[in-house]
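WP5 quarterly update. Target: CaiB/BaiF CoA transferase family protein. Source organism: Microtetraspora fusca. Length: 403 aa.
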Amino acid sequence: MSGPLAGVLVADFSRVLAGPYATMLLAEMGADVVKVEHPVHGDETRAWGPPYAGGEAAYYLSVNRNKRDLALDLKHPEGRRIAALLCERADVIIENFRPGVADRLGIGYESVRPRNPGVVYCSITGFGRQDRPGFDAAIQAESGLMHITGDSPSKVGVAIVDILAGLNAAVAILGPLYRRALTGTGARVEVSLLHSALSALTNVAQSALVSGEEAKPYGNAHPTIVPYQTFDAADGGVTVAVGNDALYRAMCAAIGRDDLAADPRFATNPLRVRHREELVAELSAVFRTRPAAEWTRLLLDAGVPVGKIRGVLEGIRAADDPATVTVEHPTAGLLELLRTGFTLTGDVPPTLPPPLHGEHSRELLAELGLTGDEIRRLEADGVVRQHPHDRDAADPAQKGTNR
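Structure tokens (predicted):
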């Protein structure tokens, strides 16, 4: 075990994206994450394909590396007993059931806390304690995020609210986890997709609150900074982000239009916002005259933030630092995975492939104190499942070793 969270056991009862993304971040820092899934259908994202690699959906593979997998039926009394054993040992528990479900399964906060008072317990919901299903697209609509995206209501091209909720959950867990290490005190953490989306509206929401006016969609432009938008080049597009007056003058010099820098209509950002249409028309005509790569080079040389509009694969390959890591997956072989947005130095854990469905069930049950006979009986009854890839593993009672 290595990394800053080495020795921290996370019981992960979450599914789909927000919760698994949060626990992957914790695993990336060395936590021992036990992903608990239904023994038959598992996490929904296992079926969210194509594409697949080695029988695993790319969606599932994207957010589940560095975890161990326990396929367990939480609706069965024996399954609930095993889940309770795991919760008693866990330092962190994370779940994203609809409100009340965890309590009915016997793994809600009030059920766990008497037996594990130092636990950091995180619940992720769609709409807080309101019993309403909440998937990312619905939250984007309800929060106003969809209203301001694109030129007319449009969802963001990735499930950004889930990602934000996962980040919020990971950050909110780390604070109480640090205090727990000092005092032994546990905590309950609640994260909702709705409030994750609302808080992410930041300056747009604050402008609406200050002005009392509904926010407007600006597409690839910015409501309060000009120019801060996409322009068509001769062979594609570039996005220019001119955040202050000095950058504006540098941009004008780089594109050969010093006259625009001297024009009193565009001297300051508030004036450029006021005269947006006139300035954008002038700049659009200029940017259409050269290829995107040439504009990118000229503006970067001038210190102006600019980006060539790229496809996803192109963007990954163009990154200065490697954006991916390659692991050996038991069924997919060599598998390229996207790295997280942070890099740790020093004692860091190795990257392990996303687990197969029930890959570590026997190993984990043995760690919880179950005998080989008990494990075989539970398998026969359908309460637990060991992935067939590991059917020939040693006796489960001898397989209880930590990752």
